[in-house]
Amino acid sequence: MAMFLAGLIGASRATSYSGLMVARVFHAFGSGVCESLPVQLVNDIFFLHERGKRIGYYTGMAAFTNVSK
């Protein structure tokens, strides 16, 4: 999570293209935690027969949140 935040802060403060790319690489390595954590939470909280629907809700919301912008 620290790499995720460091990459975001570095990208916002970048003054050159190469600095932006370095910050985005850190952001990409850190975002792996943010991408896998919700699925793990669904697996821990819900029963097996409920997981498909709940992961579908999460995936749908993640896919359609950028549409409204």
Kindly summarize this structure in a few lines:
This protein is mainly α. It has helices spanning 2-13, 17-45, 48-64.
**What count of domains describes the coordinates?**
1
Shape: elongated
Roughly what fraction of the amino acids lie in strands? under 5%
- How many alpha or pi helices? 3
Rounded to an integer, what's the Rg over CA atoms?
16 Å
Spatial separation of the terminal alpha carbons:
25 Å
Element string (H = helix, E = strand): HHH
List unreliable stretches of 5+ residues: none
Q: Describe the biggest sheet?
A: none
Quaternary structure state of the chains depicted: single chain
| Total beta-strand segments | 0
Mean pLDDT: 88
* Class from secondary-structure proportions: mainly alpha
Please give the share of residues in helix: over 70%
Structural notes for this entry:
- The radius of gyration is 16 Å and the shape is elongated.
- The relative contact order is 0.12.
- The mean pLDDT is 88.
- It has helices at 2-13, 17-45, 48-64.
- With 69 residues, the chain is an all-alpha fold.
- The protein contains 3 helices and no strands.
- The chain has one domain (2-64).
Describe the SSE topology.
Layout: H1 2-13, H2 17-45, H3 48-64
Helix pairs in contact: 1-2, 2-3
Membrane topology: Multi-pass membrane protein
InterPro entries: MFS_dom, MFS_trans_sf
Protein name: Major facilitator superfamily (MFS) profile domain-containing protein
